[in-house]
Amino acid sequence: MRPGMARAAVIDRRGLAALLAALRAAGRRLIGPTVRDGAIVLAPIDGADDLPAGWTAVAEAGRYRLERRADDALFAHAVSPHSWKQHLFVPEVPVWRATRRGPGFTVAAERPDPPPLAFIGARACDLAAIAIQDQILMQGPFADPDYAARRRGAFIVAVNCGEPGGTCFCASMGTGPRAVAGFDLCLTELPGRFLVEVGSEPGDRALAAVPHAVAEPADKAAADAACAAAAGAMGRTFDQTDIRRLLYENLEHPRWDDVAGRCLACTNCTLVCPTCFCATVEDRTDLTAGESTRRRRWDSCFTLGHSYVHGGSMRVTHRSRYRQWLVHKVASWIDQFGVSGCVGCGRCITWCPVAIDITEEVAAIRAAPAARR
Q: Where are the alpha helices (DSSP H) in the chain?
């Protein structure tokens, strides 16, 4: 079914609670935003009562805090410090296990059987990120079996963003704030109700099972206005004009030295990024040598060992590692996959402990490109 306004309905809070209860009764594990440890995180929830009613998050470069709202809106916050990546391309997963059998070993692939998931509250920028990871990890001859198993079973309830954060720039990247694809159902939170757009046949069946009303023109107009207001309230902008040429021609720009003096190579930006997919494998052998395992775990291009080949690492400085990350993210990623690796979620800006801002770094190079110096 084509997503869009042609098939739309309205539900209230009870209808939302019924929808989540139905998804859970169908055996799905609900993952959604909830308040935990001073943040709105994406974690397992039992139902609508676990959503962050009346909370919002204030995000700026290197800063994040929760604030109480004057109302009890459920989704009036920008993106979580987590992304849905942690539930699809999970931080650590077993690959195989070798067990001693007499004079030799038997090796068996480990294939976890993840429960079917339901993602509640996915934003447009994160749907774009999921689509990017789908392309990288599911399409082609070498699909990641664990990612594919988790992804194929996922039911997505998206939420159009009504209040972007101070580090958001999805409007510049063409990835939001309105979701246009990649969801089963999409909600727009309005006062006292939700406009629901259907994006798939499973979504249509799920909506039919809960109390709902036909959307009126006023509901659709209110949803349009909320999304338009969010698009005009982005905390950041990012100029993508000729971005590949700009960065390729400025690989020796002095701005790389400036950012290297601030960068801690802590890997935060890559860990919170919803599209980064660097990984390594780790072998473990028990002390009795009776069993060995191999596990895949997240890695980062900011670690010294990531660029190691025989004889040493190719990127030994913070300058070279930050340049590699940024140029790949918004330039050479396009060469590889035909799309930018940045969706404008702003997480890398918010969660950088020294407040390095990807939009600011590119703007500085654009303002004084080395080729014109």
A: 13-25, 85-88, 124-137, 145-152, 170-173, 201-208, 217-231, 243-248, 255-260, 268-272, 318-327, 333-337, 347-350, 358-367
Cα–Cα distance, 53 to 17 (Å, whole number): 13
- Can you tell me the distance from the alpha carbon of 279 to that of 299, in angstroms, rounded to the nearest whole number? 4
**In the Cβ-directed half-sphere of 96, how many Cα atoms lie within 13 Å?**
7
Q: How far apart are CA 98 and CA 294, in angstroms?
A: 9
| Residue-wise DSSP of 57-92 | EEEETTEEEEEE-SS--SS-S---SS-THHHHS-SE
- pLDDT per residue over 258-301, tens digit each? 999 999 999 999 999 999 999 999 998 887 768 888 999 999 99
| b/e map 294-324, b = 16+ CB within 10 Å | bbbebbbbbbeebeeeeeeeebeebbbbbbb
Report the 10 Å Cβ neighbour count for 82: 19
Of 345, 332, 331, whose CA–CA distance to 275 is shortest?
345
Is 165 exposed, middle or buried (CB count within 10 Å of its CB: 0-12, 13-18, 19+)?
Answer: buried
pLDDT in tens, 316-335: 999 999 999 999 999 999 99
Cα separation, 189 vs 178, in Å, equals 12
R_g of the chain, CA atoms, integer Å: 22
Q: Is the pTM of this model over 0.90?
A: yes
Give me the pLDDT at residue 285, please: 86
